[in-house]
């Protein structure tokens, strides 16, 4: 009986630690000014990866580093390129919404008839 109580207590402690760790690893995105606030982590990652490929850049092209480490502070607006990216995103959303939108149920940020790659084609600073 004693070992059963210890086993249950150990399992409870282990589950509590695991739950706390998993919550601390996932922080909901914040400071989203163009993308939908209810975007899933998976969809946000997918969109960001498409930007990386379309412009041939890494995350640090738009996101500033944290003051206390080499990690990126994704919520920070310190890097001016981030606001340029937001304006470009607003432009592509506007184009897709006004000229190509075929499904009113889909948020315009998720439409991809015109994308970053349409103009950039792997170049952060396209000529045309």
Automatic annotation (TrEMBL):
<comment type="function">
    <text>The reaction center of purple bacteria contains a tightly bound cytochrome molecule which re-reduces the photo oxidized primary electron donor.</text>
</comment>
<keyword id="KW-0349">Heme</keyword>
<dbReference type="InterPro" id="IPR003158">
    <property type="entry name" value="Photosyn_RC_cyt_c-su"/>
</dbReference>
<dbReference type="InterPro" id="IPR036280">
    <property type="entry name" value="Multihaem_cyt_sf"/>
</dbReference>
<keyword id="KW-0602">Photosynthesis</keyword>
<keyword id="KW-0813">Transport</keyword>
<keyword id="KW-0408">Iron</keyword>
<keyword id="KW-0479">Metal-binding</keyword>
<dbReference type="Pfam" id="PF02276">
    <property type="entry name" value="CytoC_RC"/>
</dbReference>
<keyword id="KW-0249">Electron transport</keyword>
<dbReference type="InterPro" id="IPR023119">
    <property type="entry name" value="Multihaem_cyt_PRC_cyt_su-like"/>
</dbReference>
<protein>
    <recommendedName>
        <fullName>Photosynthetic reaction center cytochrome c subunit</fullName>
    </recommendedName>
</protein>
